[in-house]
Amino acid sequence: MDPTAPNSGDANGGAAADATAPSNTTVTLPPLTLRDVPLLPSAAAAATDPIPNPISRHPYFHPPATFYISPGDVSLRHAFFDLASASPFPLVAYRRAGPRAGVAVDPARARAAVVTCGGLCPGLNTVLRELVVGLRELYGVRDVFGVAAGYRGFYGPDADHVRLDPAAVDDWHKKGGTVLKTTRGGFDLNKIVDGIVARGSFGFQTAVEIAQQAIDAAHVEAVSAVNGIGLVKLMGRSTGHIALHATLSSRDVDCCLIPEVDFYLEGKGGLFEFLYERIKQKGHAVVVVAEGAVK
């Protein structure tokens, strides 16, 4: 009997009541090999009393309970399996990246370094910018350095280490290549992924691209006015995918409101207080709203 074949009878051994009803099958998977990040398990084990994630205390960003990654969450290397194979392919898993509810290192004492290595790919400067801004403004890490010229910059002169902050990387997302420069080689690291093929629905990328043009226009208007606010409403109904991706691609948006994340207007930590502080700091603000976010 094939262990992967669905049960054709009901719980009492009788005939199936409905041939069109979905059936549940219990399958035993082969052993799973977890390829862990070097030094990460030991660092986590050394932190006997993890520090609450600073994001949970952020005055404006209020993450839901499902925002943080569980320590047991993993990502499988292969998404497809042949359950009927006589010799199943060994399953390999990697620890899932993402924010944890507790951090092992006190952000006040942490020092971070960012580096670009190997060949160029689109979006490197955007990634660098968001790493610096996220470490500084979400986690409170004050010492962030950019390592120039790839891995060899780690053992180069001190001039190869540049202190970075949000002001220093403010316009990096508008530049091509990598501001930190890169070299090939210099460190024995296996190459895992060279390219990623993204699957999406037809027209989505075009909608995001056109939405960015509207955001760029709103940004120009907001910057040109005293205490200007640029407001862009994008289609999406009950989902904020277009608004979110257009915001991430633009990098000029201060606040993105989508139906999936609740928000409030007045009071401590509300939208009005955030806009007041942002305008007081920058002199302008750009807000993107998915059409279903205000219903």
TrEMBL record:
SUPFAM superfamilies: Phosphofructokinase (SSF53784). Pfam families: PFK. InterPro entries: PFKA (IPR050929), Phosphofructokinase_dom (IPR000023), PKF_sf (IPR035966). Residues 111-186, 201-293 form the Phosphofructokinase domain. GO terms for molecular function: 6-phosphofructokinase activity; metal ion binding. Keywords: Allosteric enzyme, Kinase, Magnesium, Metal-binding, Transferase. Residues 1-28 are annotated as: Disordered. This is Phosphofructokinase domain-containing protein. It comes from Oryza meridionalis. The lineage of its organism: Eukaryota, Viridiplantae, Streptophyta, Embryophyta, Tracheophyta.
